[in-house]
Specification:
The chain has about 140 residues and is an all-beta fold. The protein is about 0% helix and about 70% strand.
Length: about 140
């Protein structure tokens, strides 16, 4: 199997990306033979009544249906956590663990991926940036 260097700092949604309402936003992207991924995001603003940000990783099967990659959801962000960077690493054989805002998850990446960003609460609005790095 060919070895690839990690692709670093690929921006899915740049700093200052704004999302409002509780309808999930799907961000589709491709994996060209990498085994793992690190996804990071940071919110610079979040408003509304008890607002939250939920981010999860999905894969697409051969029938073009999306499915949740087992437990590959990031720790929930709330208005009280606005200063934190959240990180999710998915890699085969990784020990499943969550420490603060960082989550590690054993998993295999399919060729097609989707990041689902959902805001919760009443009238939520968030400004954030999301990036990823593929791992060989």
């Amino acid at each position: 199997m060919a070895q690839y260097p990690p692709i670093t700092n690929q921006i899915l949604k740049g700093p200052g990306y704004s999302q409002s309402g509780t309808t999930p936003v799907n961000i589709d992207f491709a994996n060209s033979s990498f085994r793992g991924i690190v996804i990071s995001y940071k919110a610079s603003a979040i408003t509304g009544s008890t607002p939250t940000i939920d981010v999860k990783l999905q894969g697409m099967d051969a029938n073009r249906n999306y499915y949740d990659i087992y437990a590959a959801a990031m720790v929930q962000n709330t208005a009280a956590d606005i200063a934190n960077v959240y990180q999710l690493t998915v890699y085969p054989g990784l020990t499943n663990a969550t420490t603060g805002k960082i989550k590690n998850q054993d998993g295999v990446l399919p060729a097609n991926l989707r990041l689902v960003v959902t805001l919760g609460g009443t009238n939520p609005v968030a400004t954030l940036g999301i990036a990823y790095t593929f791992l060989p």
